[in-house]
Design brief:
By secondary structure, the protein is an alpha/beta fold. It folds into 2 domains: 185 residues, 3-Layer(aba) Sandwich (Rossmann fold), CATH 3.40.50.300; 100 residues, Alpha-Beta Complex (Conserved hypothetical protein from pyrococcus furiosus pfu- 392566-001, ParB domain), CATH 3.90.1530. 46% of the residues lie in helices and 19% in strands. It has a 10-stranded mixed beta sheet with strand order 2-3-1-4-5-6-10-8-9-7. Strands 11-12 form a two-stranded antiparallel sheet. The protein is globular. Its EC number is 2.7.4.25. It catalyses: CMP + ATP = CDP + ADP; dCMP + ATP = dCDP + ADP.
Length: 295
């Protein structure tokens, strides 16, 4: 059976670990452009960020890797490709994107030993990760008109903020059909990553009890948006609340849009989140369900 998976994600999301676990679980080959890039950067005595900056003005740096990526996609039948842009060259692949709340990603990479990367603090790690990611995204927009952070490009989006890599890999395998594909695009997001856009009083105990008696409603995806790396509930607060009470690790979500895309009546998702996600609503939500947002 042919299985062609391309996996990418945000810095610090753990995608490489997830990819290697999927390789082992599915018994397929593993490829990585990240390893190639780090080796090239080290050979030129460049940091990863310096390498990305240089690649913005020197197309030949990417061309060699692009050619190899396309050849693997055409010649191989069972593989996972850990790459920022392999999904763009392999539109027929299962395109997976792994996200992580910015603060969680920074905490993960701070203190890690990586070729060409070092951080003096978690805040420094967050800033440099963001700079590196946007440098790469700018380069890919310029050369390929392809945006890394446009989540509509992917078949499966998985939030890794709460679970470890082994659990994330298991979630991905569980979503695969016998053909190694998905029936339709979906996002799997931890309820602890979903910010409320309504008052907590809109979620009554009576409503949650009623929802418990109707499991078919629990399966309806929660409608969400994403702005600056953070997820916000648009519709489905009760389903998210019940998931938190039941200790569920992930919810099936439908991404309505992100960043500066138009939400409704000329309002962008960013503007909506800025007005609807208040500290008071966040604190009330945290107190009601006994946890703290990590974003």
């Amino acid at each position: 059976m042919s299985i062609k998976i391309t996996i990418t994600g945000e810095p610090g999301c753990g995608k490489t670990t997830v990819a290697k676990l999927l390789q082992e679980s599915l018994q397929i080959e593993y490829y990585s452009t990240g390893a190639m890039q780090r080796q090239i950067a080290a050979s030129k005595n460049l940091t990863t960020l310096e390498y990305n900056k240089l690649a913005e003005s020197d197309r030949s740096i990417d061309d060699e890797i692009d050619s190899l990526t396309q050849r693997i996609g055409q010649e191989k039948e069972r593989f996972i490709f850990d790459s920022r842009l392999a999904w763009h060259f392999m539109p027929y692949s299962l395109k997976v994107f792994v996200t992580c709340l910015p603060a969680v990603a920074a905490a993960r990479v701070y203190g890690q030993e990586r070729i060409g990367e070092s951080f003096v603090s978690k805040e420094n790690a967050m800033n440099l990760l963001r700079e590196r990611y946007f440098s790469e995204n700018n380069r890919f927009l310029k050369y390929y008109n392809a945006s890394l952070n446009n989540l509509s490009n992917y078949d499966l989006v998985v939030d890794s903020s709460v679970l470890d890599a082994k659990s994330i890999a298991a979630l991905i395998v569980n979503e695969l059909t016998t053909d190694g594909c998905l029936l339709h695009p979906i996002s799997l997001v931890s309820p602890r990553s979903l910010q409320p856009s309504q008052e907590i009083r809109s979620v009554s105990e009576e409503a949650l009890e009623s929802l418990t008696r109707h499991p078919e409603y629990q399966e309806i995806p929660v409608t969400v948006c994403r702005v600056d790396g953070n997820w916000t509930i648009l519709d489905g607060h009760k389903r998210c609340a019940l998931a938190l009470k039941q200790g569920k690790t992930h919810l099936r979500c439908r991404l309505a849009g992100q960043e500066d895309e138009i939400y409704r009546s000329g309002m962008t998702f960013r503007s909506f989140v800025r007005g609807a996600v208040t500290k008071a609503r966040i604190y009330d939500w945290e107190d009601a369900f006994g946890f703290r947002f990590q974003g």
